[in-house]
Specification:
Elements lengths: L6 E12 L3 E8 L2 E8 H6 L7 E7 L2 E5 L2
Pfam family, one: TOBE
Keywords: Molybdenum
Protein name: Transporter
């Protein structure tokens, strides 16, 4: 995966809280926990699970989640 965003922080998913349409995904990056709000569909498409390695990708004021 290659992205134009330079701030790609690799970590481990520690929590996924699903709402009606949006999930909050918490990623531990060396002790700092970053939270991203993404759609439930994206959680399913990326096959996100607690314990899985993921990237917090920060561009401007948004935090996206990426996986290898």
């Amino acid at each position: 995966m290659k992205l134009s965003a330079r701030n790609q922080l690799k970590g481990r998913i520690v929590e996924i809280v699903k709402g009606a349409t949006t999930s909050h995904v918490r990623i531990d990056v060396n002790g700092a926990v970053i939270t991203s709000a993404i759609t439930n569909e994206s959680v399913a498409d990326l096959q996100l699970e607690v314990g899985k390695t993921a990237y917090a990708v920060i561009k401007a004021s948004s935090v996206m989640v990426g996986v290898d």
